[in-house]
Amino acid sequence: MDHQEMEGLTHTQPRRLYAICDCDNCFVSCERVFRPDLEGKAVVVLSNNDGCVVARSSEAKALGIRMGVPYFEMRREFDESQVVAFSSNYELYADMTARVMSLIKKAAPAFFRYSIDEAFCMLPPGEATEAKSWGEALAKRVRKFTGMPLSIGIAPTKTLAKVAVRFAKKYRAYNRCCVISTDEQRRKALELTEVADVWGIGRRMAPRLRRERVDNALQLAEKPLEWVKARFNIVFQRTYLELRGVDCIPDEKAAPKKTILTSRSFDGLVSDLDTLRTHVANFAARGAEKLRRQGSVASTVGVFIVTNRFREDLPQYGNMIDYRMANSTSSTVEIVEAAHKALDKIYRPGYQYKKAGVMMIGISDGNVRQPDLFEYSPERQERMTKLDRAIDLINRIQGRDTVTIGSQRYDDKAHPGGKSRPFADVIRHDHRSPSPTTRWPDIIKLK
């Protein structure tokens, strides 16, 4: 696209409207659906092993609680009566947001999911009042059927829609839906938007823009095109044009992941190989499940283990190895076997390990694969596929980890005779809420 073509785009009228639908404080809102007594109270959600804050309610933000602050530090300043903390419950969050997305998809002519709590909708050309009514009705419907608060921003471009949704979240007068349809509305909204809050710019690029005396989005949009082209790449130039009302960011659905990493720090230190093998088996099983979810297979499994680098009193060791399988696969059994073989090669006794991880590498389309001439067995492949489908179905209906392979279970040596525990039970989640929408034992009982 040459200079004249790009300049000319700024004068074309948009052919359609974009709506960004965003769940407000998503993880916190999921918890509040089943705890309405927490409305208006400060609530935070913690990371795995209750490490640090990863989600905050508006009330928690007003108290000055920062994203990423360690949980123990937060508790020094705020007790349980001031801030309610939940362990992360991703099973619940995934199910609740899936219900929200299904309602959005039914209401929109065209739809694609952007993240766990966001979706873009493409609306046909129409009056702003019609778009406003559509957005308000959708937000009301989602709240009624799921209990989740939804904010909607509507504008001629995706970037302007992201600006609009910030106003829908912040100001109650918009009734959950803000529409930017005129040039006057566009200019006013951009003037009130800090440049760091523009989608595609963020905190890292903002200091550079401020040095150029660009503090808000309107100041950026009013810069000459030559100024932008001389300083920034084509991706930034698209953001600039979108702020001027030019629809130029492609409609892209999320592409299948090329690598899938599953890792976690342990709750404590691990030295024995058997416990490490169980952790690695669970990470590998999670990776295999993600592969099947996107219809892919992997040719290589990477495994790494590391000690705690912050413990200067302990010997340090870390290593990683890739294990290439004879045939690309998404089978949990085959991927776990490969991960165990890789772990056996890098494990060294005498060390206290703090973290391990498993990575799926060489990912390709599951419908197009070239099997090994000598080691491929169609019969075995069919058995593994049927087994995975059955396990996935049961776990989807009954709850995650209802059925696992034997190497994924932990033995509680402190329990007389030993007690097999699922993967989730060894992750610290002292404040974890129930999952009433995905687990039968957690179904709400009415008195």
Rg, rounded, reads 25 Å
**Sheet with most strands:** 5 strands, mixed
Structural class: alpha+beta
Strand content: 15-25%
Could you give the count of β-strands?
14
Order of helices and strands: HEHEEHHEHEEHEHEHHHHHEHEEHEHEE
Instruction: Give the CA-based shape.
Output: globular
Report helical residue fraction: 25-40%
List the helices and strands and how they pair.
Elements: H1 3-9, E1 17-23, H2 26-33, E2 42-46, E3 53-56, H3 58-62, H4 71-77, E4 83-87, H5 90-107, E5 110-115, E6 118-123, H6 128-146, E7 150-155, H7 158-170, E8 177-179, H8 183-191, H9 202-211, H10 217-221, H11 225-231, H12 234-243, E9 260-270, H13 273-293, E10 296-307, E11 318-329, H14 332-346, E12 353-365, H15 378-398, E13 410-411, E14 420-421
Parallel strand pairs: 2-4, 7-8
Antiparallel strand pairs: 1-6, 1-7, 2-3, 5-6, 9-12, 10-11, 10-12, 13-14
Describe the structure in your own words.
With 447 residues, this protein is of the alpha+beta class. It is built from 15 helices and 14 strands. It has a 5-stranded mixed sheet. A 4-stranded antiparallel sheet has the order 9-12-10-11, with helices on one face. It has a 3-stranded mixed sheet with strand order 3-2-4. α2 packs across α5, α5 runs antiparallel to α6 and α13 packs antiparallel against α14. It is globular, with a radius of gyration of 25 Å.
List keywords for this structure.
globular; single chain; 15 helices; 39% helix; alpha+beta; four-stranded antiparallel β-sheet; disordered N terminus; 447 residues; five-stranded mixed β-sheet; 14 strands; 21% strand
